[in-house]
Amino acid sequence: MRYNNPVIKGFYPDPSVCKVDDTYYLVCSSFQYFPGIPLFESKDLINWKQIGHCLTRPTQIQLEQISSSGGVFAPTIRYDQGRFYVTTTNDTTRQNFYIWTDNIYGEWSEPVFVDQGGIDPDLYFEEDRVYFMSNGEDDEGIPGIVQCQIDIASGRKLTPSRTIWQGSGGRYLESPHMYKINGRYYLLAAEGGTEYGHMETYARSHSVNGPFEAYPLNPVLTNRNLGGYELQGVGHADLIEDRQGNWWLLHLAFRQIGRWQTYHHLGREVFLTPVTFDEEGWFTAGHEGTTLMTFESDRLPDSLIQAEQKLYTFDNTDWNIDWCYLRHPSFANYTLEPNRLLLRGNETTLNEAGSPTFIGIRQKDFDAEISCDLQVHAGQAGITLYMDEQHHYDLSVDRDDSGCKVIQQLTIGSIRSIPNEAAFALDNNQSVTLIIRAERERYRFFACIEDQEIPLGSAQTKYLSSEVAGGFTGVVIGLYASGIGSTATFSNFQIQYI
Ligand code: 6LW
Asked: What is this structure's pTM?
């Protein structure tokens, strides 16, 4: 059976996975977006369905005034004695915490804080002991993967924080995960940073506390030496055994806009790479230590179909699952109906690191047609292709006393483009159809009224890329209303991926 990567498309970075009975569960980082920590389930590691989020209440996470790409960093999901745990970092407050639930389809607990620094926390359970790991420095100031034992009921540290492995020498040692396989302890980590030098390394030991012996051929997985290959940034992996006893790595990577164009705007996505153990208990991964856009695997039944949703509408998405807000929204400004959205603007604009009236869905592939009908009753509203408050492309309808205009405006750092605009005589009940046609290298903008389609310019995707904007997120297709008094109705929304 052949499967294609990514297995989860769009900005869903830092995946972590666990298996309970015949179901796999996966979580991702979410930064300034709310709800936080998207949660997925799968029966085959190939087809994933989002079932909710882990952080759904402001009492669990405070996102107000955090910077873009601050907030919720990489999580780890684990299961022990009937309870799910997700541990993560609020990178803005530099606090590590975990939450738990006994019902994966329900609410999660309030945070339990652990007094160990670093990021990318991991939990490892063995009998009645619980080990907490993260990167950073131990109590003696020694850098590396740092481990302590905790009381899982309170989060209290039971032992000092000790560095148990210092990696293979790459910069930014992070994303530790501990496993016990055939009586040995395996410690996985990412090195090189989450860009073009990213790689996965590991070591093993006869004790959970080490000393750890590094895999002799580290990195076990990286694409850093594949020049001219559009799949890059491979790392931040979690190891999982499937129901047939085969091993896999679920990890992040990103797709450049072209073989030789080192820009990615869709964010870091979730990839699946096969793993093979040798008779000495070392494992290798992928195609000669690299991951590919597609794998042929006799491990998966030929009957398995990799489904892909190509059309997203108000009707076939769930406001509480597929959509997200910037930081904590004022829900009084949102009326979410099955096939209609009413928005009321507030004082925050898209150019501020706050919570404008905005609801978004992650762009999941390069080629798409995005459209919706928009009635602006007052002020300004529209569609934004949003990377952060300094990098977004907006297609909006502005209504004032002189009438209506459709405006295309590009914000790229400190540069604001000269607006591309078209004036319309529109009465209050008339709507404009806004259309954005997305391709690998550009977006093209259109307005359509009474079957007349008017082009409103184009813009390159690379200026919304992580390489230009920085940070850890990806483009989110946002519907917004801007300014106090702005009111608008969105309908017939659709994203048709091609
Ligand atoms: C994540 C860490 C990282 O926690 O970036 O660059 C952080 N590496 O593994 C956010 O994705």
From this structure: 0.98
